[in-house]
Amino acid sequence: MRIQDIEHINEDGNLFVKMSEESFNDIIERLEDLEDINSIKEAQESNEETFPMGFTMSISEAETSGKLIELWREYRGFSKVDLGNKINVSGQYIGMIESGKRTGDISIYKNLADALRCDIEDMLR
Length: 125
What we know:
Elements: E1 7-11, E2 14-18, H1 21-45, H2 53-61, H3 65-76, H4 80-87, H5 91-99, H6 106-116
Antiparallel strand pairs: 1-2
Helix pairs in contact: 3-5, 4-5
């Protein structure tokens, strides 16, 4: 966008700006980028955990709670056995939950959420 592409118009004491649609769209894009930058800065300052785009996309596309648990487990670097040991169940049981063969009760999901450092809602579909 170039400053000379902007025309100032004064009508009845009201100041208006006239610009090309291309310039307007450029301004909107820059504002959206600035909002993204500010959101990232706020998250960094609050020590809020951020996640890679690929992980967040996989989470949003997951269709079952089991798949969500699997994604969180892999993201946190646990094997099924490691995660099972952390919450006092077998790795085989973790595998059954991930595959949908077992559901587990709410206490299992609470323990999983604690072990995977996420909210219980992050594992439910």
